[in-house]
Design goal:
Elements (H helix, E strand, L loop, with lengths): L1 H19 L11 H19 L3 H7 L7 E5 L3 H4 L2 E5 L1 H13 L3 E5 L5 E4 L4 E12 L9 E12 L2 E11 L9
Helix pairs in contact: 2-3
Length: about 180
Amino acid sequence: MRKTLFAAVGLIALASESVSAAPADYKDPLDPSTLAIIRSQFTKVMELANRHDVNALHEMFWQSPSAVIVAKSANPSSEGNWAGFWGNEAIDQKLHAIAASGPVVLQPDFSKLKVVGLTHDVAESYAPITITVSYAGQDGTPKPFLMIMNWIEVGKNWKIASEVILPVPPTPAVKE
């Protein structure tokens, strides 16, 4: 058991080192001004969501059957608590349902917001976020999540291609 634990810790440390250590010559495929635009778009999405402006949020999404949002499901027995909603009609329905459920407050930690270019026309933004919502059996208690958005350049605009909201599980108790 102890060998397995040490091996697992070693693998995690090795993986963390290789993931966090970008090559010295790494150059983001997007210039700083484009990354700033995407950062601003992320901020705008948070503001619109907190105002329940579903129509404006619709405009922020890529208008494609491939657009997706992964969020808490109102029907845990059939969808396993979390589900993906593809296409703009499904995304709009999901956003309307969440907005109609009552107060929704998204509080991202903007100091930890990261935006990276994946290609010249695709980017990813991610940040820890506290969400307070009473949708799908949630009791309105603020809970930690990780918000990940993939962006695609459409014409001269950056649109949300996917939005994934992952719950952050509580830290397990340390056994001595």
